[in-house]
Design goal:
2 copies of one chain form a homodimer.
Chain A: H1 4-10, H2 17-25, E1 28-32, E2 37-39, E3 47-53, E4 55-61, E5 67-74, E6 78-79, H3 82-87, E7 93-97, E8 101-107, H4 108-117, H5 119-145, H6 148-158, H7 160-165, H8 168-175, H9 179-193
Antiparallel strand pairs in A: 1-8, 2-7, 3-6, 3-8, 4-5, 4-7
Helix pairs in contact in A: 4-5
Chain A binds a DNA duplex through helix 9.
Chain lengths: ~200, ~200
DNA sequence: GCACGATCTTAACAATTGTCATCGTCCTTT
DNA sequence: AAAGGACGATGACAATTGTTAAGATCGTGC
């Protein structure tokens, strides 16, 4: 029987039926409504989550207490704060649902046990971490080399669904600009399209 | 006998003497002069490097063919392009020595063999990858939330040695601004200090 | 030592983005 | 239906950074 989490795992490694069951059983199944937290601000991140359905916004509060949206996780991707997970200290981030979200969670301890028992799973974990690092790295590149309009164009091109699903003020925060600036950029793009 | 690479490994895992020797023997020892490449542009990255002494600049060429400095690796840190290493495709990056650099390199194959033989080494590899991801993530955060002057202040505070060792035009590129802008920012900071 | 090129500084002006204030729309709640 | 609030659009002005050009300084090689 198909399962979104096992489908994703299958893209990395092949598990025997009993291994797949043991893997799944280490996870809990959860559901949050729009506006509810997967990780509350100031709490310790103790799980790795897999988003089966829905959309999550990552943010953190800077020194001035401002919310800074830094990423979105839609269905099909993993989600955690590696720093907090490893150190056990409170996370600097919060995860909040932009849509009703269905997800699976595994605590660090059981995950480490699976890693120890099945080295292939650790290999998978390392690959997922690497991919996350690459995603973040690519985003950082974009910030260094591109101006806001180019970042927005690329965001629209690379994740067109998200443009529809994410309120513009969060898109603006993700792009590192103010909502007014995003409005201005969108207008310029509209004007340029239809002279 | 102390060895910079084993010293670094010892901060993650404890190796038996024979394991340490097997680990070391999988590496080759290398030396490049200032201005020489550890990874030439357009080549496949086939190794993970450990910088024992020296300083390396990472850059990549964007669509317009411009060099974009994205990071520096001083002595004591690991260095690779995970994307190219994993895919076997040409790297989008180049690594070039800013100073005479002494380093150790291990190809992907032997590393994977070590991972398979000693799961603790894979654990270490995963941790190093996570740390790299966190470093990059933190840098991306800084770009989203801070203006250029703040990014420069933090760079000076966090890596004061590098400010001395890296030519300013590369610092500017790393900060995502033009050399002229960095000059202006430095002047403003000097003026503010000594009125 | 000298000359050359690379690097850094400085200044004026242009482009981009931020800030502030206002307005309209849509949605929710009553 | 009315009131209120969140969201987005718009415009004027300020702050930041880019662009261009010129000159100063430094190091390197001849």
């Amino acid at each position: 029987m198909p399962h979104p989490l096992l489908d994703r795992v299958a893209t990395y490694i092949t598990l025997a039926e009993n291994e797949a069951q043991e893997f799944l059983q280490a996870f809990t199944e959860n559901q949050v409504a729009k506006g509810e937290y997967l990780l509350q601000p100031g709490k310790v991140c103790q799980h790795i989550h897999f988003i089966a359905e829905g959309l999550v916004r990552h943010y953190h509060a800077d020194e001035a207490g401002q919310e800074i949206t830094c990423d979105f996780t839609p269905e099909g991707r993993f989600l955690t704060d590696l720093m907090s997970l490893r150190s056990g200290e409170p996370s600097q981030y919060a995860f909040i649902a932009l849509e009703s979200t269905h997800y699976y969670s595994i605590p660090r301890g059981p995950l480490e046990q699976l890693y120890a028992k099945y080295p292939a799973m650790e290999t998978m974990g390392r690959q997922i971490t690497e991919e996350t690092a690459l995603r973040i790295s690519h985003q950082a590149q974009a910030f260094i080399t591109q101006k806001a309009e180019d970042r927005y164009r690329n965001f629209v091109r690379q994740q067109p669904e998200l443009v529809q699903r994410v309120p513009q003020k969060y898109v603006a925060a993700y792009l590192g600009i103010k909502p007014e600036s995003l409005s201005r950029i969108r207008k310029q793009m509209m004007d340029a399209e239809k002279p």
